[in-house]
Amino acid sequence: MTARARAKPTTRRRIPRNGAVGEAPMSFEWKTAAADPAMRRAAWALAVWPWGMPAARPAPEADSLAVAKLRDFNAQRGCAVCTVKLFFVHLHKCGGTTVESYFRQAYGDAFLVPDTGHEGELRDALVVQNKARIRALRAFARPYRVFARHIAYGYHATVDCARPLYMTMLREPTARLLSLYGYLMFGEGKKYRRFPANATFGEFVRHRTTGTCAESTGGVYQEYCLSNYQTRKICGYYAILETAEPSEETFRCAARHLDLFFFVGTVERMQESLCALGHLLQWRFSFDAKKKLNPSAHAATTDEDLEHLVRWDRKLWHLGDRHLDETLRGLPAGTCAPPAASQRPHLKGR
Fold this sequence. Notes:
Blueprint: H1 3-6, H2 30-34, H3 37-48, H4 62-75, E1 84-89, H5 96-107, E2 111-112, H6 118-127, H7 131-141, E3 146-147, E4 163-170, H8 173-186, H9 201-206, H10 229-235, H11 237-241, H12 248-260, E5 263-266, H13 270-280, H14 304-329
Parallel strand pairs: 1-3, 1-4, 2-3, 4-5
């Protein structure tokens, strides 16, 4: 049976709520960890050194190890227990829904999109070391090969995977904020809208306490969705937990982790990104994902209220662009022809 035939409509798989017979559901609040120095240190360990992975720049042999993991991942199609699993860090408004549609087509029942809220539950169980809960969550995830949705770097520790393959899609940060604003402001049926219906984009980014994002629940505003969100997610769970603005240290953390990703694409180069990803994962279907970009989103940002929200994300986005260039250079000549320079406005002033 082909991958296309196996593919099913999008469904979010629910993780069993009880870790063992008679055990109550997890009630630990992640924000409790923010006030506890010990919990903060535990979160930092999870974010930067999951499974003993050093936070330093990967050794020269790291590239060959990634190639070996990718080879094994492609060879393990249909395996009962896979030793290599793929984790797609799906960032808000960064083309993730498009990419997930191809994962669903390629892997069918082996593709898991955790139900909303379960990522936090997995994370919380690790921080407080609820061993029974961790065992139950890992047992549930064992049959799956590909994980997606709005996870962060370090998620592989929650499913007991010692050989993870990470990938993500990045986006020019001003364009991402504009897209997020439109999504939350004008999208039909958005139950998370918490800012005034007549808010302008400027008000949206200046008065963030009256706004929200798609990961908020119960009216709780999570500011990290606006402030250098891509950098926080790639750095890991500690950077999401941190209430202070991201710093150069946060960026360096994200840059180190990005070096460990086997693939990084960008929304602005969606066609090239999908072509390269499909080649690496040996997908046997074509792609048609031409992204319409808002030219004004590429204008230089001078507004101080906006600049501090995108400073580190912009640096990370440029790293991602170079990461994609390196990937394309490693493919057979002519595999993924780049568009004309006139069709790549994001490179202006680079």
